[in-house]
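Table 4 source record.
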Amino acid sequence: MSEPFPKILVVDDEPWNLELMEAYLSGDYEIALASDGVEALEKVKDFDPDIILLDVRMPKMDGYQTCEKLKNDERTKFIPVVLVTALSEKEDRIKGIAAGADEFLSKPVDMLELKTRVHSLLKIKQQHDTIRKERDTAHKYFDVAGIMIVIIDNEHNIVNINKKGGEILGYSKEELIGKNYYDNFVPVEERETLKAHYKKLQCQ
């Protein structure tokens, strides 16, 4: 079974630009089109793009505003956004960076540069998606583990503990977070030895 094409959402208020982008990219990617920022935010919900090519000057909601909304939403903040603009002033780029843009393309768009930027950003997103999946898997097994797992910071305070750990120590997770593990749960005669051992591990 072949891998599905990566998905790109192209947002531009000029029909000609949308047609041009779609014609150039559709052989390698699944394409969805939107004519303004408001429509783009709606399309993102169902289309779930891997990357967004976003024009800056649009009616209803410009590219800066759209990008900022995408980056402030937990569901979409990791989707790479490329701002496509005819604006070349330094201030315009700074405004785009402040909105959270990951890359910029200048109009008229060089199609070879477009494909190169898209390919590079997709590789980064795929790596990020892999890390997130591995993290989610680790979190899932963290709480179902049959042994106590405690994560402490450099000051020996508990920053996370699994369900089994809470059962063994006799407190809820919320009650345990922030407590000093050694001072509260390690016998007095063993504390200094374990603290020294922990410090040695930190230095390795």
